[in-house]
C-alpha cells in the first residue's frame, strides 16, 4: 500500500541557480577590479566568449545581456527586416520566442509540433510555407533538438532563413554535432534558471561570418569606431561582472551535469510502473542539455488531470511547472495569427495540457527525489482507491 510522504518544510522548486563558492567568484572579480573595465568587451568577457565558442562548437559566437536580446539581434542580422514577411514558429514555447519576432516587425505563423520530441513539426512547417514566408524559427524544447535535418532541407529548398531558440539547449547535440552548427543562427539563454548561467545573459551563434559581423555591430549601437555609426543598433552586451560569474559557473558544470543525470535516472526508477505518467525520452543519437525533467500526465490512465496533480503536489511543497502552458497562440494579442486556431494545433494543445516539469537540479538529494516520486504515486492512486470504495 502506498503511503503519502511528509510535506517538505521549504518549497522545492523546478530549478535552483548553480552558485559556485563565493570565494571563487570573488577571485574571478579580481582582474575586473584591477583593470577598472566593467563592460564594452573587456578581457574577461572576451575570454568567456572564447571558452564558450569552443565548448558549444559554434562557428561564430557573441555574448549578450540576455537571451531575448540575442534572438532579436540574430533575426535582424539574418536580414529579416520589419514588415518583410512571415516566420513560421511553434506555439509551444516561452513567450520570448514569439515576442522576438514581434519586436523585429515580423509576423509569426504558428505550426504544430511533433508528438514525440515536442519540437516544431517539419511537416506542419511545410504546410505553412507561403508567398510571404521569409524564415523558420524552431525551438529545441527542454533541450531536445528539433528535426534539424528536415528543417534544414525545407529552409534550403524554399530559400528561407533558419534560426533556433536554443535557450534550453546548452550542450545539446543533434546528429552528432552541436546544435550551434545547425541553421543560420542559434540563441542560448544564460538566465539564472538555466544549467549554465551568468545570472542574466545569453549568446548568439551564427553560421556566416558576414552575419556575425552584422550582429557585432547591432549589439553595440551600430558603432564601428569613434567616428562612425554604421546602422541603428542597440545595447545588448554582456558585462564583465556577468562574464566573471560565467567563468566560475562553467568550472562547476561537470559535476552538476553528472548529478542531474543521476537524478533523472532515479526519477525514472521511481516512476516506473506508475499508471498514467511518462517521462520524455531522448531520440536515438541525441545528447541533451539536462535542463529540465518533464513528465506527461495522461488523464485517462492516471485518473487525475495534469492540473489536478499540479495543485495536489503543492500540498507537499513540491512546486512543479506547467511548462509550456498556455500556448503562445492563446495569448490575446496572437490569437488572430495564421495557425493560431485550436483546431490547427491538435498536438500542441494536447501536450500543453499534459506536461509537468519536475524539480531537477544538483542540490536535490536522493531522498528528496524519492519523496517527490512517492507523492506522485500516492496522489495518482487516490482516484482509483475512491472509485473502488464507491
Account of the protein in words:
The protein has 390 residues and is α/β, with parallel strands linked by helices. The chain is 38% helix and 14% strand. It is built from 13 helices and 14 strands. It has helices spanning 22-35, 43-55, 67-77, 95-103, 122-128, 148-158, 209-218, 240-251, 253-271, 299-302, 306-313, 346-352, 366-389; strands at 60-64, 86-89, 107-110, 133-139, 161-165, 173-174, 177-178, 185-189, 202-206, 223-225, 228-229, 277-279, 293-297, 355-358. Strand 10 and strand 11 form a beta hairpin. It starts with 21 loop residues before the first helix and ends with a helix.
Query: What Rg, in angstroms, do the CA atoms define?
Result: 22 Å
User: With helices defined by DSSP (H or I, 4 residues minimum), what is the helix count?
Assistant: 13
Structural class: alpha/beta
Percent strand: 5-15%
Main sheet makeup: 7 strands, mixed
Shape: globular
State the order of secondary-structure elements, H for helix, E for strand: HHEHEHEHEHEEEEEHEEHHEEHHHEH
What is the helix content? 25-40%
Name the poorly predicted regions: 385-390
Assembly type: single chain
Strand order of the largest sheet: 1-9-8-5-4-2-3
> Ends: how far apart?
18 Å
State mean pLDDT (0 to 100 scale).
95
SS elements, strand count: 14
Amino acid at each position: 500500500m502506498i503511503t503519502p510522504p511528509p510535506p517538505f518544510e521549504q518549497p522545492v522548486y523546478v530549478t535552483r541557480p548553480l552558485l559556485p563558492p563565493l570565494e571563487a567568484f570573488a577571485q574571478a572579480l579580481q582582474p575586473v577590479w584591477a583593470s577598472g573595465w566593467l563592460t564594452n568587451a573587456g578581457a574577461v568577457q572576451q575570454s568567456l566568449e572564447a571558452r564558450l565558442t569552443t565548448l558549444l562548437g559554434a562557428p561564430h559566437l557573441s555574448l549578450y545581456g540576455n537571451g531575448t536580446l540575442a534572438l532579436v539581434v540574430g533575426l535582424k542580422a539574418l536580414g529579416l527586416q520589419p514588415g518583410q514577411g512571415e516566420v513560421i514558429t511553434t506555439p509551444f514555447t516561452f513567450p520570448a520566442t514569439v515576442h522576438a519576432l514581434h519586436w523585429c516587425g515580423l509576423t509569426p505563423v504558428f505550426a504544430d509540433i511533433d508528438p514525440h520530441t515536442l519540437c516544431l513539426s517539419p511537416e506542419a512547417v511545410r504546410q505553412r510555407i507561403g508567398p510571404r514566408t521569409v524564415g523558420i524559427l524552431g525551438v529545441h524544447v527542454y533541450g531536445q533538438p528539433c528535426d534539424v535535418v528536415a528543417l534544414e532541407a525545407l529552409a534550403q529548398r524554399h530559400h528561407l532563413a533558419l534560426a533556433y531558440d536554443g535557450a534550453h539547449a546548452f550542450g545539446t547535440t543533434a546528429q552528432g554535432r552541436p546544435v550551434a552548427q545547425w541553421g543560420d543562427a542559434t540563441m542560448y539563454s544564460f538566465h539564472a534558471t538555466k544549467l549554465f548561467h551568468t545570472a542574466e545573459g545569453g549568446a548568439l551563434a551564427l553560421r556566416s561570418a558576414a552575419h556575425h559581423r552584422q550582429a557585432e555591430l547591432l549589439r553595440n549601437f551600430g558603432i564601428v569606431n569613434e567616428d562612425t555609426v554604421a546602422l541603428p543598433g542597440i545595447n545588448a552586451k554582456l558585462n564583465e561582472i556577468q562574464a566573471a560569474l560565467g567563468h566560475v559557473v562553467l568550472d562547476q558544470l561537470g559535476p552538476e551535469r553528472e548529478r542531474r543525470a543521476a537524478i533523472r535516472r532515479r526519477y525514472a526508477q521511481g516512476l516506473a510502473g506508475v499508471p498514467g505518467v511518462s517521462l520524455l525520452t531522448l531520440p536515438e543519437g541525441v545528447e541533451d542539455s539536462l535542463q529540465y525533467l518533464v513528465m506527461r500526465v495522461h488523464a485517462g490512465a492516471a485518473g487525475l488531470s495534469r492540473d489536478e496533480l499540479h495543485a495536489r503536489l503543492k500540498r507537499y511543497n513540491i512546486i512543479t511547472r506547467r511548462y509550456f502552458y498556455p500556448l503562445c497562440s492563446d495569448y490575446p494579442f496572437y490569437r488572430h495569427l495564421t495557425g493560431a486556431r485550436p483546431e490547427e494545433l491538435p498536438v500542441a494543445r494536447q501536450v500543453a495540457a499534459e506536461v509537468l516539469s519536475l524539480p531537477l537540479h544538483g542540490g536535490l538529494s536522493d531522498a528528496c527525489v524519492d519523496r517527490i516520486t512517492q507523492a506522485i504515486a500516492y496522489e495518482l492512486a487516490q482516484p482509483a482507491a475512491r472509485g473502488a470504495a464507491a
